[in-house]
Protein backbone atom coordinates (compact mmCIF):
# COMPACT_ATOMS: atom_id res chain seq x y z
CA UNK A 1 0.00 0.00 0.00
CA UNK A 2 1.30 3.46 -0.94
CA UNK A 3 4.57 1.80 -1.93
CA UNK A 4 5.77 4.61 -4.12
CA UNK A 5 4.91 7.29 -1.53
CA UNK A 6 6.62 5.36 1.26
CA UNK A 7 9.70 4.72 -0.81
CA UNK A 8 10.09 8.35 -1.81
CA UNK A 9 9.59 9.66 1.72
CA UNK A 10 12.10 7.12 2.93
CA UNK A 11 14.57 8.46 0.37
CA UNK A 12 14.11 12.01 1.68
CA UNK A 13 14.61 10.94 5.28
CA UNK A 14 17.62 8.75 4.51
CA UNK A 15 19.40 11.88 3.38
CA UNK A 16 18.50 13.64 6.64
CA UNK A 17 19.61 10.69 8.76
CA UNK A 18 22.98 10.66 6.99
CA UNK A 19 23.71 14.18 8.13
CA UNK A 20 23.97 13.86 11.91
CA UNK A 21 23.71 17.56 12.82
CA UNK A 22 20.94 19.39 11.07
CA UNK A 23 20.62 23.04 10.19
CA UNK A 24 17.43 24.91 9.56
CA UNK A 25 18.26 24.82 5.86
CA UNK A 26 18.63 21.04 5.90
CA UNK A 27 15.14 20.72 7.32
CA UNK A 28 13.68 23.23 4.90
CA UNK A 29 15.27 21.43 1.96
CA UNK A 30 13.88 18.08 3.18
CA UNK A 31 10.42 19.61 3.53
CA UNK A 32 10.60 20.99 0.01
CA UNK A 33 11.19 17.42 -1.13
CA UNK A 34 8.37 16.10 1.05
CA UNK A 35 6.11 18.66 -0.58
CA UNK A 36 6.94 17.38 -4.06
CA UNK A 37 6.50 13.77 -3.01
CA UNK A 38 3.03 14.53 -1.62
CA UNK A 39 1.99 16.44 -4.72
CA UNK A 40 3.17 13.53 -6.87
CA UNK A 41 1.06 11.23 -4.68
CA UNK A 42 -1.93 13.34 -5.78
CA UNK A 43 -2.53 14.99 -2.42
CA UNK A 44 -4.61 18.17 -2.62
CA UNK A 45 -2.42 21.26 -3.13
CA UNK A 46 -3.80 23.26 -0.21
CA UNK A 47 -3.57 20.24 2.08
CA UNK A 48 0.11 19.84 1.17
CA UNK A 49 0.79 23.51 1.77
CA UNK A 50 -0.79 23.50 5.22
CA UNK A 51 0.84 20.20 6.11
CA UNK A 52 4.35 21.34 5.21
CA UNK A 53 3.83 24.63 7.07
CA UNK A 54 2.71 22.77 10.20
CA UNK A 55 5.71 20.44 10.08
CA UNK A 56 8.12 23.29 9.40
CA UNK A 57 6.83 25.26 12.34
CA UNK A 58 7.45 22.37 14.72
CA UNK A 59 10.66 21.08 13.13
CA UNK A 60 12.92 24.07 12.77
CA UNK A 61 12.89 24.96 16.48
CA UNK A 62 16.13 24.85 18.44
CA UNK A 63 14.92 21.97 20.55
CA UNK A 64 14.62 19.67 17.59
CA UNK A 65 17.82 20.74 15.86
CA UNK A 66 19.91 20.59 19.03
CA UNK A 67 18.57 17.21 20.09
CA UNK A 68 20.79 14.12 19.89
CA UNK A 69 18.69 12.64 17.10
CA UNK A 70 17.40 15.58 15.08
CA UNK A 71 16.52 13.53 11.97
CA UNK A 72 14.48 11.12 14.09
CA UNK A 73 12.66 14.04 15.67
CA UNK A 74 11.79 15.51 12.30
CA UNK A 75 10.51 12.15 11.07
CA UNK A 76 8.42 11.79 14.22
CA UNK A 77 6.89 15.21 13.64
CA UNK A 78 6.04 14.25 10.05
CA UNK A 79 4.47 11.02 11.29
CA UNK A 80 2.41 12.84 13.94
CA UNK A 81 1.23 15.44 11.46
CA UNK A 82 0.30 12.78 8.89
CA UNK A 83 -1.79 11.05 11.54
CA UNK A 84 -3.43 14.38 12.45
CA UNK A 85 -4.16 15.01 8.79
CA UNK A 86 -5.99 11.69 8.57
CA UNK A 87 -8.06 12.44 11.66
CA UNK A 88 -6.06 11.17 14.63
CA UNK A 89 -7.72 12.07 17.90
CA UNK A 90 -11.27 12.19 16.61
CA UNK A 91 -13.80 9.44 17.03
CA UNK A 92 -14.08 7.31 13.90
CA UNK A 93 -16.43 4.68 15.32
CA UNK A 94 -19.80 3.99 13.73
CA UNK A 95 -22.64 5.62 15.59
CA UNK A 96 -25.46 3.12 15.87
CA UNK A 97 -27.11 4.55 18.94
CA UNK A 98 -30.66 4.86 17.66
CA UNK A 99 -33.89 2.93 17.76
CA UNK A 100 -33.46 -0.28 15.77
CA UNK A 101 -33.45 -1.03 12.97
CA UNK A 102 -30.72 1.61 12.60
CA UNK A 103 -30.32 2.63 8.94
CA UNK A 104 -26.82 3.00 7.49
CA UNK A 105 -26.77 4.40 3.98
CA UNK A 106 -23.88 3.79 1.60
CA UNK A 107 -23.46 6.06 -1.38
CA UNK A 108 -20.86 6.69 -4.05
CA UNK A 109 -20.11 6.40 -7.73
CA UNK A 110 -20.61 3.21 -9.67
CA UNK A 111 -17.63 0.91 -9.37
CA UNK A 112 -16.36 2.49 -6.17
CA UNK A 113 -16.98 -0.72 -4.24
CA UNK A 114 -20.29 0.21 -2.63
CA UNK A 115 -22.08 -3.13 -2.94
CA UNK A 116 -19.01 -5.09 -1.86
CA UNK A 117 -18.61 -2.76 1.12
CA UNK A 118 -22.26 -3.35 2.10
CA UNK A 119 -21.47 -7.07 2.31
CA UNK A 120 -18.25 -6.47 4.23
CA UNK A 121 -19.96 -4.16 6.67
CA UNK A 122 -22.80 -6.63 7.23
CA UNK A 123 -20.25 -9.33 8.05
CA UNK A 124 -18.40 -7.06 10.43
CA UNK A 125 -21.60 -6.04 12.22
CA UNK A 126 -22.68 -9.64 12.57
CA UNK A 127 -19.32 -10.44 14.14
CA UNK A 128 -20.18 -7.70 16.64
CA UNK A 129 -23.37 -9.63 17.38
CA UNK A 130 -25.67 -7.33 15.49
CA UNK A 131 -28.36 -8.59 13.15
CA UNK A 132 -28.13 -6.63 9.86
CA UNK A 133 -30.52 -6.68 6.91
CA UNK A 134 -29.04 -5.85 3.50
CA UNK A 135 -31.28 -3.60 1.40
CA UNK A 136 -30.72 -3.28 -2.36
CA UNK A 137 -31.95 0.20 -3.31
CA UNK A 138 -30.21 0.40 -6.67
CA UNK A 139 -33.17 -0.36 -8.89
CA UNK A 140 -31.60 0.67 -12.19
CA UNK A 141 -29.17 -2.17 -12.60
CA UNK A 142 -30.64 -5.67 -12.09
CA UNK A 143 -27.03 -6.82 -11.68
CA UNK A 144 -26.66 -4.66 -8.57
CA UNK A 145 -29.60 -6.35 -6.84
CA UNK A 146 -28.36 -9.80 -7.89
CA UNK A 147 -24.85 -8.97 -6.69
CA UNK A 148 -26.11 -8.08 -3.22
CA UNK A 149 -28.29 -11.20 -3.12
CA UNK A 150 -25.26 -13.31 -4.00
CA UNK A 151 -23.18 -11.63 -1.29
CA UNK A 152 -25.99 -12.17 1.21
CA UNK A 153 -26.14 -15.88 0.32
CA UNK A 154 -22.37 -16.22 0.76
CA UNK A 155 -22.55 -14.57 4.14
CA UNK A 156 -25.79 -16.16 5.31
CA UNK A 157 -27.19 -12.65 5.82
CA UNK A 158 -30.71 -11.85 4.66
CA UNK A 159 -31.21 -9.50 1.72
CA UNK A 160 -34.49 -7.60 1.47
CA UNK A 161 -36.47 -8.62 -1.58
CA UNK A 162 -36.32 -5.54 -3.83
CA UNK A 163 -37.39 -5.57 -7.45
CA UNK A 164 -36.05 -3.61 -10.40
CA UNK A 165 -38.27 -0.63 -11.16
CA UNK A 166 -39.60 -0.13 -7.61
CA UNK A 167 -39.19 3.29 -6.03
CA UNK A 168 -36.01 3.21 -3.91
CA UNK A 169 -37.60 5.24 -1.11
CA UNK A 170 -40.51 2.79 -0.94
CA UNK A 171 -38.05 -0.11 -0.86
CA UNK A 172 -36.18 1.43 2.05
CA UNK A 173 -39.39 2.17 3.95
CA UNK A 174 -40.71 -1.35 3.36
CA UNK A 175 -37.35 -2.75 4.45
CA UNK A 176 -37.54 -0.74 7.66
CA UNK A 177 -41.00 -2.15 8.45
CA UNK A 178 -39.80 -5.64 7.59
CA UNK A 179 -36.73 -5.15 9.78
CA UNK A 180 -38.85 -3.95 12.70
CA UNK A 181 -41.18 -6.93 12.47
CA UNK A 182 -38.43 -9.50 12.05
CA UNK A 183 -35.90 -8.49 14.68
CA UNK A 184 -33.23 -6.86 12.50
CA UNK A 185 -31.31 -4.15 14.35
CA UNK A 186 -29.45 -2.57 11.40
CA UNK A 187 -30.40 -1.77 7.80
CA UNK A 188 -27.57 -1.48 5.30
CA UNK A 189 -28.87 0.50 2.34
CA UNK A 190 -27.04 -0.07 -0.94
CA UNK A 191 -28.01 2.94 -3.04
CA UNK A 192 -27.64 3.54 -6.75
CA UNK A 193 -24.43 4.90 -8.20
CA UNK A 194 -23.62 6.51 -11.51
CA UNK A 195 -20.42 6.95 -13.44
CA UNK A 196 -20.57 10.68 -12.71
CA UNK A 197 -22.46 12.81 -10.25
CA UNK A 198 -25.84 13.81 -11.57
CA UNK A 199 -28.68 15.79 -10.16
CA UNK A 200 -31.29 13.07 -10.47
CA UNK A 201 -29.22 10.65 -8.43
CA UNK A 202 -28.55 13.24 -5.76
CA UNK A 203 -32.25 14.10 -5.53
CA UNK A 204 -33.06 10.42 -5.07
CA UNK A 205 -30.44 10.01 -2.34
CA UNK A 206 -31.80 13.10 -0.61
CA UNK A 207 -35.29 11.57 -0.63
CA UNK A 208 -33.96 8.40 0.96
CA UNK A 209 -32.15 10.47 3.56
CA UNK A 210 -35.26 12.49 4.39
CA UNK A 211 -37.45 9.44 4.67
CA UNK A 212 -35.15 7.07 6.55
CA UNK A 213 -32.98 9.54 8.54
CA UNK A 214 -29.95 7.23 8.36
CA UNK A 215 -27.75 7.32 11.45
CA UNK A 216 -24.69 7.03 9.22
CA UNK A 217 -24.28 8.11 5.61
CA UNK A 218 -21.04 6.61 4.38
CA UNK A 219 -19.46 7.82 1.18
CA UNK A 220 -17.61 4.99 -0.54
CA UNK A 221 -14.57 6.17 -2.48
CA UNK A 222 -12.15 4.31 -4.72
CA UNK A 223 -8.71 5.26 -3.38
CA UNK A 224 -7.15 4.50 -6.76
CA UNK A 225 -8.86 7.59 -8.19
CA UNK A 226 -6.89 9.93 -5.90
CA UNK A 227 -8.04 13.51 -5.73
CA UNK A 228 -11.03 12.79 -7.97
CA UNK A 229 -12.39 10.69 -5.13
CA UNK A 230 -11.95 13.65 -2.79
CA UNK A 231 -13.75 16.05 -5.12
CA UNK A 232 -16.65 13.64 -5.52
CA UNK A 233 -16.76 13.14 -1.74
CA UNK A 234 -17.05 16.88 -1.33
CA UNK A 235 -19.98 17.06 -3.76
CA UNK A 236 -21.82 14.22 -2.05
CA UNK A 237 -21.19 15.82 1.32
CA UNK A 238 -22.57 19.17 0.19
CA UNK A 239 -25.82 17.55 -0.93
CA UNK A 240 -26.22 14.81 1.64
CA UNK A 241 -24.11 15.65 4.66
CA UNK A 242 -22.15 12.42 4.85
CA UNK A 243 -21.02 11.18 8.26
CA UNK A 244 -17.93 9.31 7.13
CA UNK A 245 -15.89 7.89 4.30
CA UNK A 246 -14.97 4.33 3.34
CA UNK A 247 -11.83 4.19 1.20
CA UNK A 248 -11.74 1.08 -0.94
CA UNK A 249 -8.99 -0.62 -2.93
CA UNK A 250 -6.18 0.47 -0.65
CA UNK A 251 -4.66 -2.93 -1.40
CA UNK A 252 -4.12 -1.81 -5.00
CA UNK A 253 -1.53 0.70 -6.11
CA UNK A 254 -3.32 3.74 -4.70
CA UNK A 255 -0.92 6.67 -4.54
CA UNK A 256 -2.11 8.08 -1.26
CA UNK A 257 -3.82 11.25 -2.43
CA UNK A 258 -7.32 10.25 -1.38
CA UNK A 259 -6.32 8.91 2.03
CA UNK A 260 -4.25 11.98 2.84
CA UNK A 261 -6.65 14.63 1.54
CA UNK A 262 -10.20 13.50 2.13
CA UNK A 263 -10.37 14.27 5.84
CA UNK A 264 -8.85 17.73 5.51
CA UNK A 265 -10.95 18.67 2.48
CA UNK A 266 -14.33 17.39 3.66
CA UNK A 267 -13.85 17.48 7.43
CA UNK A 268 -15.36 13.97 7.51
CA UNK A 269 -13.55 11.01 9.05
CA UNK A 270 -12.38 7.94 7.17
CA UNK A 271 -14.19 5.21 9.09
CA UNK A 272 -13.15 2.07 7.18
CA UNK A 273 -10.72 0.99 4.52
CA UNK A 274 -11.22 -1.79 1.98
CA UNK A 275 -8.15 -3.98 1.69
CA UNK A 276 -9.24 -6.52 -0.92
CA UNK A 277 -12.11 -8.09 -2.79
CA UNK A 278 -12.76 -10.72 -0.11
CA UNK A 279 -15.62 -10.08 2.26
CA UNK A 280 -13.48 -10.00 5.38
CA UNK A 281 -11.15 -7.37 3.87
CA UNK A 282 -12.64 -4.35 5.63
CA UNK A 283 -10.62 -2.67 8.37
CA UNK A 284 -11.51 0.01 10.87
CA UNK A 285 -9.35 3.00 9.95
CA UNK A 286 -6.63 4.07 12.39
CA UNK A 287 -4.86 7.29 11.33
CA UNK A 288 -1.80 6.66 13.50
CA UNK A 289 -1.29 3.14 12.16
CA UNK A 290 -1.69 4.39 8.62
CA UNK A 291 0.91 7.11 9.20
CA UNK A 292 3.20 4.46 10.64
CA UNK A 293 2.71 2.26 7.57
CA UNK A 294 3.43 5.14 5.22
CA UNK A 295 6.66 6.03 6.98
CA UNK A 296 7.70 2.42 7.50
P1 LIG B 1 -20.26 -0.57 -6.80
O1 LIG B 1 -20.59 -0.38 -8.25
O2 LIG B 1 -19.85 0.71 -6.16
O3 LIG B 1 -21.31 -1.28 -6.04
O4 LIG B 1 -18.92 -1.46 -6.76
P2 LIG B 1 -18.71 -3.01 -6.50
O5 LIG B 1 -18.97 -3.34 -5.07
O6 LIG B 1 -19.45 -3.80 -7.53
O7 LIG B 1 -17.14 -3.11 -6.71
C1 LIG B 1 -16.50 -2.84 -7.95
C2 LIG B 1 -15.25 -3.72 -8.06
O8 LIG B 1 -14.30 -3.33 -7.08
C3 LIG B 1 -15.53 -5.20 -7.81
O9 LIG B 1 -14.77 -5.94 -8.73
C4 LIG B 1 -15.02 -5.42 -6.38
O10 LIG B 1 -14.59 -6.73 -6.18
C5 LIG B 1 -13.87 -4.44 -6.33
N1 LIG B 1 -13.56 -4.00 -4.94
C6 LIG B 1 -14.38 -3.47 -4.02
N2 LIG B 1 -13.71 -3.16 -2.89
C7 LIG B 1 -12.41 -3.52 -3.10
C8 LIG B 1 -11.20 -3.44 -2.32
O11 LIG B 1 -11.16 -2.96 -1.17
N3 LIG B 1 -10.07 -3.91 -2.91
C9 LIG B 1 -10.06 -4.44 -4.16
N4 LIG B 1 -8.90 -4.85 -4.67
N5 LIG B 1 -11.17 -4.48 -4.93
C10 LIG B 1 -12.32 -4.06 -4.42
From TrEMBL:
<keyword id="KW-0694">RNA-binding</keyword>
<protein>
    <recommendedName>
        <fullName>Signal recognition particle protein</fullName>
        <ecNumber>3.6.5.4</ecNumber>
    </recommendedName>
</protein>
<feature type="domain" description="SRP54-type proteins GTP-binding">
    <location>
        <begin position="269"/>
        <end position="282"/>
    </location>
</feature>
<comment type="similarity">
    <text>Belongs to the GTP-binding SRP family. SRP54 subfamily.</text>
</comment>
<dbReference type="GO" id="GO:0005525">
    <property type="term" value="F:GTP binding"/>
</dbReference>
<keyword id="KW-0687">Ribonucleoprotein</keyword>
<feature type="binding site">
    <location>
        <begin position="190"/>
        <end position="194"/>
    </location>
    <ligand>
        <name>GTP</name>
    </ligand>
</feature>
<comment type="function">
    <text>Involved in targeting and insertion of nascent membrane proteins into the cytoplasmic membrane. Binds to the hydrophobic signal sequence of the ribosome-nascent chain (RNC) as it emerges from the ribosomes. The SRP-RNC complex is then targeted to the cytoplasmic membrane where it interacts with the SRP receptor FtsY.</text>
</comment>
<feature type="binding site">
    <location>
        <begin position="248"/>
        <end position="251"/>
    </location>
    <ligand>
        <name>GTP</name>
    </ligand>
</feature>
<feature type="binding site">
    <location>
        <begin position="108"/>
        <end position="115"/>
    </location>
    <ligand>
        <name>GTP</name>
    </ligand>
</feature>
<dbReference type="GO" id="GO:0008312">
    <property type="term" value="F:7S RNA binding"/>
</dbReference>
<keyword id="KW-0378">Hydrolase</keyword>
<comment type="subunit">
    <text>Part of the signal recognition particle protein translocation system, which is composed of SRP and FtsY.</text>
</comment>
<keyword id="KW-0547">Nucleotide-binding</keyword>
<keyword id="KW-0733">Signal recognition particle</keyword>
<dbReference type="GO" id="GO:0048500">
    <property type="term" value="C:signal recognition particle"/>
</dbReference>
<keyword id="KW-0963">Cytoplasm</keyword>
<keyword id="KW-0342">GTP-binding</keyword>
<dbReference type="GO" id="GO:0003924">
    <property type="term" value="F:GTPase activity"/>
</dbReference>
<dbReference type="GO" id="GO:0006614">
    <property type="term" value="P:SRP-dependent cotranslational protein targeting to membrane"/>
</dbReference>
Amino acid sequence: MFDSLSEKLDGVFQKLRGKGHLTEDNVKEALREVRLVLLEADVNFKVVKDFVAAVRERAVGQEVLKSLTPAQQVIKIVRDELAMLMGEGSDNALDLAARPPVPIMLCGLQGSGKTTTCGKLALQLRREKRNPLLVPADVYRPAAIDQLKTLGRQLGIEVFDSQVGQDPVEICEAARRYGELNGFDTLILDTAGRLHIDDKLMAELERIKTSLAPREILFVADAMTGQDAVNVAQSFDERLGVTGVVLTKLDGDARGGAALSVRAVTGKPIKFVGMGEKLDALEVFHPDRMAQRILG
